[in-house]
Amino acid sequence: MKVLLIEDNRELTQNIIQYLSHEGIICEVAGNLFDAQDKILSYEYDCVLLDLMLPDGNGLSMLEIIKKREVRPNVLIISAKDALDDKIRGLDLGADDYLPKPFHLSELLARLKAIYRRSKLGGSDELRFNEIIVQLQNLQVHVHGKSLDLTKKEFDLLVFLIINKNRVLGKNAIAQHLWGDYTDNLSSFDFIYQHIKNLRKKISEAGGKDYLTTVYGIGYKFGDHQS
Fold it and tell me: What pTM, to 2 d.p., does this model score?
């Protein structure tokens, strides 16, 4: 999962990043509306953690920008502003949930996972594609009942591909989803090919079909029908 944290409190930001990173979640940060807008328009996220009280305005204005995105991230509002009208307005503008400060990081993680299950997985902790079964809670993948020994990046890549099945994914989009801001300093995306190659091999060795198509010059497509 890849999230964008829009929050100006540095201590809280560091605590959230450290906690979510330990849980295998990529967390990028914007400390104000200006930076947040730039990231939202440039990259794709699974969820946005949105504070309302930001240095350059009300965070609710971000919801209007998010609504215009072709691929819209989910939004979890995290704010000390617990007035009923702010909560209702945020939900009316498209936010998925509201978590008032202060909160426990474990509850934040639980809310994130719940939103992700509802929006991406139909409320389930299990992701299925033909003979491939992905169990998100224990990070296990089975093909025809055989367990695959995947690295964390290979697991995340497979989940990303299945969720976006039948959609062409550019190498940059894959890199951004798996590595976040770190990809800005990369000279090439050759490492993606290696992860794709390893994933294909492991699925094949377990008797699974190759659902991956290379779209030359662009990236990859995962689905039943290949050209």
Answer: 0.70
Q: Are residues 6 and 101 in the same domain?
A: yes
Q: Are 50 and 75 in contact (CB under 8 A)?
A: yes
Dihedral (C-alpha) 69, 177, 19, 72: value to the nearest 10 degrees?
Answer: 10
Evaluated on CA atoms 138, 140, 146, 151, the torsion sign reads negative
Q: Is the dihedral of CA 178, 180, 185, 188 positive or negative?
A: positive
Query: Which residues lie across from 219 on neighbouring strands?
Result: 170, 215
Residue 227 resides in a domain = no
* Tens-digit pLDDT profile for residues 91-137: 888 899 999 888 999 999 999 988 988 887 776 778 899 999 998 87
CA 77 to CA 61: how far, in whole Å? 12
Q: Are residues 73 and 49 in the same domain?
A: yes
- Distance (Å, whole) CA 79 – CA 86: 10
Please indicate, yes or no, whether residues 171 and 62 belong to a single structural domain of this protein.
no
